[in-house]
Specification:
Elements (H helix, E strand, L loop, with lengths): L1 E2 L3 E5 L8 E6 L4 E7 L2 E6 L4 E5 L3 E2 L1 H13 L7 E5 L3 E4 L8 E5 L4 E17 L13 E12 L4 E5 L3 E3 L3 H4 L6 E13 L2 E11 L11 E8 L4 E8 L4 E11 L5 E10 L5 E9 L2 E5 L18
Amino acid sequence: MYVAAPEVFLRDRVAQVYNKVGSVKNGEKVVVLDREKRFIQVRTAAGLQGWIEQRYLISQQVFDNFQNLTRDHQNDLPQATGVTRNETNLHIEPGRESDHLYQLAAGSKLTVLARGTAEKAGVVQASNPLLKKDKQPAGPVYEDWWLIRDAQGRAGWVLARMVDLDVPLEIAQYAEGERFMGFFVLNEVQDEDKKVPQYLALLSEPKDGQPFDYDKVHVFTWNVKRHRYETAYRERNLNGVLPATVTHEDFGKEGTLPVFILRVKDDAGNVAERKYKLNTPIVRRVLAPGEAPAKPVARKRKKR
């Protein structure tokens, strides 16, 4: 089995009065020797032997599931970067009750790969009887989760509100009350003696449990004459699905330009890719042969 707590003392006996014979740390492998009620007797790789509460351990199967999750997502494209606000458990899937093994320390740097949602156990969203227009029925409350890769390359799910995304300060000011769900450097432009990045940003309403990963796209370009960022492109009412992809492509006379590809879901739930190119400061759709421009998805928006 494997230790799923930051650090746990080993007892010499199962009793109210006991001696500490050593300790084990997060992720450490131990061999099971015996079981008694809620305690398990283990032996560490260093040869220490003692008793530990079962709730601090996970099985080989759960450990293998984490290894598989890490392997399956080791090459996923980063959608954002961030740091943990507090000590945070790394879960095998979205949900507070799902198995967890590793614990990230406060201030740990991580890479965001995807978004998920999970029901918040024991919490129900009730409709407001005082508001005649409130037609939202009572139901479960959902929380956002991030699939992340930590500095050691381990993949897992963390509660989104436990992570602060490292949104570049120069574009964070343009959030306009929205939540950044992803951000990417498209390219850099020369402004006198420095190079300045230009950005793609994916945004959403600041509310957990949305049926989309993002519903707005902004492209921020640098005006070399005025030495400031400007919003070169906006698109709204998207049922956007992560991941987004940023690359470069040769467009002949236009040269090699930054390209970004969005994945968007239609009313039937089908996901299609949309390609865009940036020829600063103009952003245009790149249509495949025979492809017609997609119509915006009509969604009813709630008043806030």
